[in-house]
Design a protein that fits this description.
The protein is an alpha+beta fold. It has five helices and seven strands; from the N terminus they run H-E-E-H-H-H-E-E-E-H-E-E.
């Protein structure tokens, strides 16, 4: 199936990737690759039935969370930065690019690790966006797709 093919390719990929079922209540994550699990400290079982809200915490910006939920609900692409939390509670700046394919939302998560300070959050609300995300065939013919991301500071 399409999902089996995608899972096989994305599970070996170095970028953190999730796929959510946007037709189900709470838009649960139906696939999280190994890079995402390493980044967040979650296991596949701890994510079962949960959406990206599993990464929300006290430092997650309400506006950014609302924009993400609106994009998931309306099936619109989205590129934004927001503060997410690992399972252990450590914060990280998540540069997220979201696209839709049928009943699924596919998100690429690019973590900016290190301390996130109040000044970063205030500036980031309107200034950091992923400007493009393209999946290309592997130039080494290994079968794993390559993702090109571009960032812009406005």
């Amino acid at each position: 199936s399409w999902m089996d093919t995608v899972e096989s390719a994305f599970d070996r990929y170095d970028l953190a990737i999730t796929i959510q079922d946007i037709t189900a209540e709470h838009r649960p994550i139906v696939f999280a690759n190994q890079a995402f699990l390493r980044l967040t400290g979650h296991s596949k079982s701890s994510l079962r039935g949960r959406g990206l809200d599993a990464l929300a915490g006290p430092a997650t910006e309400a506006l950014q969370k609302a924009l993400l939920n609106d994009a998931l609900r309306s099936q619109q692409p989205l590129k934004l930065a927001l503060t997410h939390h690992t399972k252990a509670g450590k914060t990280f700046l998540n540069l997220l690019a979201l696209a839709h394919s049928g009943p699924y939302a596919i998100a690429v998560h690019v973590p900016m690790l290190g301390p996130v300070c109040k000044e970063d959050i205030e500036v980031r609300h309107m200034s950091v966006y992923v400007t493009s995300c393209r999946v290309l065939p592997c130039p080494r013919k290994c079968g794993v797709p390559q993702t090109l991301l571009s960032f812009s500071w406005l």
